[in-house]
């Protein structure tokens, strides 16, 4: 590995040898001209990162002059002296040269570690984005490209899906920007074509009785799945993932671990009398080795088949949670207590200092709701429930 003051004339005239030879520059330490036995010449830079010797190839001598190689080598060595690893960064960039590369990198490095709903992103990428842009270079995507893609999805009859595509592209290119894969995001401030409204469906008493009849016609696990969603006001995914180890039937508690909640905060749910009775019946029939309380209701196919049985117009499983919360509010239960039951995150300054568990208030509220629900199911005028009066 000879070292000499490289010149443009030497670079042009140096002849290949029987083995690959590297000529290091005296002017810029680490810059090398590599000459292969076939006569190919390329520039590379050697540097140290965390004590390890690293190499980064700059390119062919045919397209990079000696002066340019020295300038780029100085910049690279300066970055390495500050702790950067240029070769690793270049490799990361290579992995994300196309939209398909970027999509893979985004899912593995950002979405999967941080989003419980990463599969929704994966689905949108595969169905709406990659079929059009799979081989497109990320640096070639323009705002016009993004706008045209979003509008195409909307014009195909899916304006709300188009909104999701716009939001995902914004996140995708923000991720690329953070990793220095692009200089700017072409997905910033792209108009959302769909007008979205918050769903406010609350079941009437007649509809509650109708869906309960449907529950009774389902297999035991699926029936319990829907009944518990209405009795506890918890999210469908949380109910479906209920584990026996988290249920205390003696004291009437269900503790949802932080790994199983939307906001990543552990949540204690009081179990009312009807909920305890329902779970006790499930336990009596459960396999001793079974982890999940509702193993037979965990599949999307099973839930989709069950939804097809409902005769109530425009019914969705999440309506049960909203219905429970709305009836509790109409009965006089404080909104803060309902928020605690729903495990909503408070963002006020007061919430930082409020460390009260609200367990008594939550229990009283859900007991009141169970009585109110049973009165509704009985359709008995004599079963009218008094307004909520607070924790006992």
- Shape estimate: elongated
Helix content, binned percent = 40-55%
Task: Please describe the biggest sheet, giving its number of strands, its sense, and whether it closes into a barrel.
Answer: 5 strands, mixed
Q: Kindly report the average pLDDT value.
A: 87
Topology order in helix (H) and strand (E) letters: EHEEEEHHHHHHHHHEEEHHHHHH
How many E strands? 8
Structure commentary:
Helices cover 49% and strands 10% of the residues. The termini are far apart. A five-stranded mixed β-sheet has the order 1-2-3-4-5. It contains 16 helices and eight strands. It has 392 residues and is α+β, with helices and mostly antiparallel strands.
Topology diagram in text:
Elements: E1 3-4, H1 8-13, E2 21-25, E3 31-35, E4 41-49, E5 52-60, H2 66-81, H3 86-95, H4 99-114, H5 118-133, H6 143-155, H7 159-178, H8 205-216, H9 220-232, H10 236-240, E6 247-248, E7 253-256, E8 267-270, H11 273-285, H12 300-307, H13 318-330, H14 335-342, H15 349-353, H16 359-378
Parallel strand pairs: 1-2
Antiparallel strand pairs: 2-3, 3-4, 4-5, 6-7, 7-8
């Amino acid at each position: 590995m000879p070292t000499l003051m490289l010149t443009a004339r030497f670079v042009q005239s140096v002849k290949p040898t029987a083995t690959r030879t590297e000529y290091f520059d005296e002017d810029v330490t680490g810059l090398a001209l590599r000459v292969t036995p076939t006569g190919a010449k390329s520039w590379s830079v050697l540097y140290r990162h965390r004590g390890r010797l690293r190499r980064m190839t700059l390119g062919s001598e045919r397209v990079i002059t000696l002066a340019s190689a020295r300038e780029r080598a100085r910049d690279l060595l300066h970055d390495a002296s500050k702790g950067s690893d240029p070769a690793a960064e270049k490799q990361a960039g290579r992995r994300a040269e196309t939209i398909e590369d970027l999509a893979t990198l985004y899912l593995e490095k950002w979405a999967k570690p941080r989003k419980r709903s990463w599969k929704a992103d994966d689905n949108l990428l595969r169905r709406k984005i990659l079929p059009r842009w799979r081989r497109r270079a990320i640096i070639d995507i323009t705002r016009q490209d993004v706008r045209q893609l979003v509008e195409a999805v909307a014009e195909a009859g899916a304006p709300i899906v188009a909104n999701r595509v716009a939001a995902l592209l914004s996140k995708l290119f923000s991720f690329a920007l953070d990793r220095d894969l692009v200089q700017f995001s072409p997905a910033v401030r792209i108009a959302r074509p769909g007008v979205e409204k918050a769903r406010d469906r609350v079941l009437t008493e007649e509809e509650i009785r109708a869906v309960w009849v449907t529950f009774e016609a389902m297999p035991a696990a699926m029936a319990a799945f829907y009944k518990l969603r209405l009795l506890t006001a918890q999210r469908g995914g949380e109910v479906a993932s209920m584990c026996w180890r988290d249920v205390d039937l003696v004291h009437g508690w269900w503790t949802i671990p932080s790994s199983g909640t939307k906001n990543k905060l552990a949540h204690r749910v009081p179990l009312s009398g009807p909920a305890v009775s329902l779970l006790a019946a499930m336990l009596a029939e459960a396999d001793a080795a079974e982890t999940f309380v509702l193993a037979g209701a965990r599949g999307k196919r099973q839930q989709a088949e069950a939804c097809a049985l409902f005769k109530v117009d425009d019914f969705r499983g999440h309506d049960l949670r909203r219905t429970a919360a709305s009836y509790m509010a109409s009965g006089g239960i404080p909104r803060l207590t309902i928020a605690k039951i729903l495990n909503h995150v408070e963002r006020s300054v007061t919430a930082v200092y409020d460390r009260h568990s609200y367990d008594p208030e939550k229990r009283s509220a859900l007991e009141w709701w169970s009585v109110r629900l049973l009165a509704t199911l009985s359709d008995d005028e004599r079963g009218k429930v008094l307004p909520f009066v607070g924790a006992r």
